[in-house]
Amino acid sequence: MQCKLMAVVLAAAIPLCASAQSSVTIYGVADAALAKEDTGAPGGSRTVVNSGNQSTSRVGFRGVEDLGNGLSAVFNLEAGVALDSGMGDSSLFGRRSVVGLKGGFGTVMIGREYTPIADVANASDINGQGFYGTNLNSFGANRLTRRISNSVNYKSNSMGGVIVSAGYGLGETVTGPSLDLMGLAVEYKANNIYVGAGYHQVERLASGDDKEMIFGAGFTAGPVEVRGNYMVANPTGNGNKYEQANAGVSYTFGANKIYGNLQQSKLEGGAKGNGFSLAYSYALSKRTNVYTSYASIRNNNKATFGIFSAGATVVPPAGAVGSDPSAFSVGVRHSF
């Protein structure tokens, strides 16, 4: 009897031992807000319930398996969710879908991944690419590239605070320009200091390659954090250059955090928009906070630059040149 019981215990323990070498985590963010948005154009004001004013609402799965000798298999699948409607993104795991290997050499991922420039843009944005007034509007209108499908990506381990990232996205075209993207970024993260720079080259037209660049920096001193960046999208052809600059500061006291950011966007043809944003967050716990956010842009008579948050956009219509958009929200965010 004891032998039979021992056999049952050992049989039950075998899969547990195997699973101890691997793990899968389910995680996500639920973020919703009541917002007042105004494109600045006649009839452009509306009151809405938005999903993701601070962080895009999402659900994800990430896992790791220990392969021995310091080598691990890793994966991440992440899907966007609209809390206001219950709808998902048009691509199920369009936010991130990668699998790869991690070891002493760094991490190699294959699939749909964030670009090297996106890493620098996120790290150097005082809003963390959330709240109205984030630098995400630099990634709209086919300017800078935030994610690449059909890609192979590499990220080094920290070398004295220095991290190198590289990505190659395949356009997978049969004829014409390849649409391939090559990207590289170098970041330094140590001693409360951040400095990063990135570069992309995209073969969109046969006549030449589009170029994308970013430089970002920041530092933390006690409760004060300062972040800023300068981004350039220079598509093939004359008069197409886009530039954006951000400078922001935040201050934390107790469960409270205040954010402020100044932003300027301009096109080579003379369009210019000057904007600012303010946000406030109160932490109810480590996972839950309430917040309010406001942003405004003053466009000149050639511009239609818009306001972006993590999950919402407020952009004047193409014909409403010179319109000044603004947005205000009050929301709640929970991470799990």
TrEMBL record:
<comment type="subunit">
    <text>Homotrimer.</text>
</comment>
<keyword id="KW-0472">Membrane</keyword>
<dbReference type="InterPro" id="IPR023614">
    <property type="entry name" value="Porin_dom_sf"/>
</dbReference>
<keyword id="KW-0732">Signal</keyword>
<keyword id="KW-0406">Ion transport</keyword>
<protein>
    <submittedName>
        <fullName>Porin</fullName>
    </submittedName>
</protein>
<dbReference type="InterPro" id="IPR002299">
    <property type="entry name" value="Porin_Neis"/>
</dbReference>
<keyword id="KW-0813">Transport</keyword>
<keyword id="KW-0626">Porin</keyword>
<dbReference type="InterPro" id="IPR033900">
    <property type="entry name" value="Gram_neg_porin_domain"/>
</dbReference>
<keyword id="KW-1134">Transmembrane beta strand</keyword>
<dbReference type="InterPro" id="IPR050298">
    <property type="entry name" value="Gram-neg_bact_OMP"/>
</dbReference>
<feature type="signal peptide">
    <location>
        <begin position="1"/>
        <end position="20"/>
    </location>
</feature>
<feature type="domain" description="Porin">
    <location>
        <begin position="7"/>
        <end position="301"/>
    </location>
</feature>
<dbReference type="InterPro" id="IPR001702">
    <property type="entry name" value="Porin_Gram-ve"/>
</dbReference>
<keyword id="KW-0998">Cell outer membrane</keyword>
<keyword id="KW-0812">Transmembrane</keyword>
<dbReference type="Pfam" id="PF13609">
    <property type="entry name" value="Porin_4"/>
</dbReference>
